Amino acid sequence: MNKKKEELQKNTIDNTKKAKMTTNQGVPISEDEFSLKAGERGPTLMEDFHFREKMTHFDHERIPERVVHARGFGVHGEFQVYESLEKYTKADFLTDPSKKTPVFVRFSTVAGNRGSMDIPRDVRGFSTKFYTDEGNYDLVGNNMPVFFIQDAIKFPDLVHAVKPEPHNEIPQAASAHDTFWDFVSQNTESAHMIMWLMSDRAIPRSLRMMEGFGVHTFRLVNKEGKSHFVKFHWKPKLGAHQVVWDEAQLINGKDIDFHRRDLWENIDKGNAVEFELGLQVIPEEDEFNMDFDVLDPTKIWPEEDVPVQLVGKMTLNQNVDDYFAETEQVAFHPGHVVPGIDFSNDPLLQGRLFSYTDTQLIRLGGPNFHQIPINRPVCPFANNQREGYNQMNITKGQTSYHKNALNDNQPEPASPEEGGFEHYNEKVEGRKIRARSESFKDHFSQAKLFLNSMQPHEKQHIFDALSFELGKCKSMDVRNNVLKEVINKIDREMAQYVADKVGADLPEAVEESTYDKSSPALSMSNTPASLETRTIGVMITPDVAEQTLKETKEKFEKHGIEVSFIGDKIHSIGDVRVEETFDTVHSVLFDAVVVLKGKAQLQPEAIENLAIAFKHKKAIGYGIDEGDISDALQFSLEAKGVTDIEKDVDQFLEDVKAHRIWDR
Ligand code: HDE
Question: Where is this region: Disordered (predicted)?
């Protein structure tokens, strides 16, 4: 148990243990079925304190959901740095390789409500709270390294545009509507982020299989006071993988909880979920050596120019005990930093530094939200901030001010040498001005860089996603504006394709971005691939032999693959359980499918599931005891990625590992 989990025990109540039911005042309850009435058929009495308490609590059980990132899922884990990073930072958790720092991570979608589906086309939040010995450090990032806007003052506008439209609250958890695309056409700084959002990064296969990014440029400051600019990355051990858009839409219907279930179950089974922390570091003196402004959050530092150094590993390994108490009440803030980590002047980051505490005040009901168990640091803390709603601490002493002579100035600030936080001593000078720096003006080069870096199938997915999204817009003006102001300026071929698809005007050829660099690290095709924790749905006819089932299971499970048998009903064949049917699952819920046929004919649902798996470019395996299936199927057994698993299971496994047969 890590230090934070241990600390949480103080507030953990185990109702699964034999416990007598009481009121919140601790009074034992003799009966919990009937309210207190004047006569069996009479009115309920006001004096029924048990009824009143139970109902009042229920009436007040909801708190406001987060204004963005409302739907989230949290897990515990720990982080360990590989080697001391003291040349860059004095942060204790980044300089002591023997230290295991507890973490709590909350993954989220951005636009949808708390009850929305797991795979809309959306950005994913990736927030990490490190409970360090020097206080909590929050890395509140996303699964995309850039953002839509360059200045925080535009955030309410962006969010109002992407959220359901205010007059009818349609659509839920989707950017495919007029107000969002209108915003994009009027705010072309979003061009680069739009490429990410239209790419497969926006529909991850699993929360365990996506990258994370701190987005902004931050600072690392070492003991000597020297500062480096830094970009933070999380690299998933399993690589970054996606589903396809048609599949995502089906999954959202078949299993709205697809991502959280995947994470919960994998952690529950003891499959460690691992991410490596990566740093891109440049010395402060190199601030002006890039062909963009390092303060601009719509720009990446191409990994080929500034390599990502992998400096530590985060292992997520424990589920929460109580979703509300932990995941819903956790309060992240990019301003929660520790000595050795500091901010840059990125105007988006600067605005975030205000917003996050402000939002917790309304969401968690007052200034003492840091005392909620999940938010409490694991190191000692002391100051003069007493009172306020929901004060949980009883602080001794007559004085609650500094300086004082009555209590010897306790609690006393620590000097930087003693570990006190010292803001980086940056020189700042300027006139007050509402303006954007000229150096933020280039909106299209890196959008083009991203497109240049895609494999053909990835590029096609972007074109198709744009066609879907603009096709959903009702306003012709919006479609035309996006094409003219954004798409056409990034890439002519993309403009031609989309204009044709959505019946919009093809804008006149303009000087599109001529940026010809590419960055292979941006393509998801270049991330690690693995068989571990992959899922295979094995569809069977009712007469398949027990032995065949056992052998098939064995064949896959030895590679860490999870096998589910899907039959006409839930039953046992010998010792083997057929736990799923076509009522309970679908091929979209698996990475790959296999069909095992005995004498009996394939069910129509199996044929349909296979066709959909084929369409979604999944590996398909088959094993036929008797007869033939080629006539029943809507694709050829000779097609790429369709394999007889009795003859060539290795080929099938290769295809599963490759995730999809993109060139089928
Ligand atoms: Fe957030 N963001 N954000 N954001 N954000 C919130 O804080 C905000 C931005 C991110 O799991 C809110 O506690 C502003 C960028 C994540 O609990 C709110 C701006 C990035 C989460 C807020 C941004 C993020 C939030 C809503 C523009 C990636 C979920 C609830 C200046 C680096 C945290 C809350 C969790 C949540 C404001 C832009 C990531 C309103 C004003 C850029 C992962 O405070």
Answer: 1-20
Percentage of the chain beyond pLDDT 70 is 100
CATH number of the domain at 590, please.
3.40.50.880
How confident is the model over 331-354, as a mean pLDDT? 98
Which atom of ligand 1 is nearest the CA belonging to 297? 42
- CATH number, domain of 178, equals 2.40.180.10
| 662 part of a folded domain | no
Choosing from 375, 392, 424, the residue where a domain stops is: 375
Whether 69 is catalytic is yes
User: Structural domain of residue 148, as residue ranges?
Assistant: 72-375
d(CA 62, CA 66): 12
Q: 3-state SS of 308-349?
A: CEEEEEEEEEEECCCHHHHHHCCCCCCCCCCCCEECCCCHHH
Question: How high does pLDDT run on average in the chain?
Answer: 97
Q: What is the pLDDT of residue 465?
A: 98
The torsion angle over the Cα atoms of residues 330, 336, 337 and 343, rounded to 10 degrees, is: 130
Atom of ligand 1 nearest to the CA of 216: 32
Centre of ligand 1 from the C-alpha of residue 298, in Å:
16
For residue 127, the ligand 1 atom closest to its alpha carbon is 43
Q: How far apart are CA 464 and CA 502, in angstroms?
A: 10
pLDDT at 70 over 90: yes
Question: What is the model's pLDDT at position 17?
Answer: 82
- Confirm whether 15 is a catalytic residue: no
Check residue 181 and give its pLDDT.
Answer: 98
Give a yes or no: residue 480 inside a domain: no
Number of domains in the chain: 2
Q: Is residue 569 part of a domain?
A: yes
CB 319 within 8 A of CB 287: no
Strand-pair partners of 231: 280
Tens of pLDDT, residues 560-610: 999 999 999 999 999 999 999 999 999 999 999 999 999 999 999 999 999
Nearest CA owner, ligand 1 atom 32: 141
Residue ending a domain, choose from 344, 375, 406: 375
